[in-house]
Design a protein that fits this description.
The chain is mainly alpha-helical. The protein is built from seven helices and no strands. The longest helix is centred in the last third of the chain and has 34 residues.
Amino acid sequence: MSDLVTILIILAIYLIISVGIGIYGRSKNNSAEDYFVASRKISPWILFCTLAATNFSAFFFLGFAGASYRTGWGFYGIMAMGTSLVGLSILLLGVPIHKLGKEKGYVTPPELIAGETNSKYLGWLYGTVLVVFTLPYLATQPMGAGILLETLSG
């Protein structure tokens, strides 16, 4: 069996498993709140795993290694500071926002901004800013995955 066929089989299996998990998860959701914020019942362990998965992005595997190579050991201090700030951000921002969202039923950040400022315009503006700045980040993920797959598969 050729390398290409092996890679395609592995990717097909991964896709089938991912779709299966999605279909199973969909059957358990009754509302948008259930789907988007897991009924507000995410355990600390699941939250940790979610944050870890978010951080293990193309930047982590490609950008972090490249920046460390270019600048040396000093870059590890920068990354440690960033990691520490995540925990502080969760305590100072995440916990109060979680309580506010639970109390008032906010599901998305634009809903929170619009509800707390009484301005639909600010909610739409914030949503637009999120989309504009998230799309380039999302676009880099498959690019990074492609670079890694190409490197690993020859």
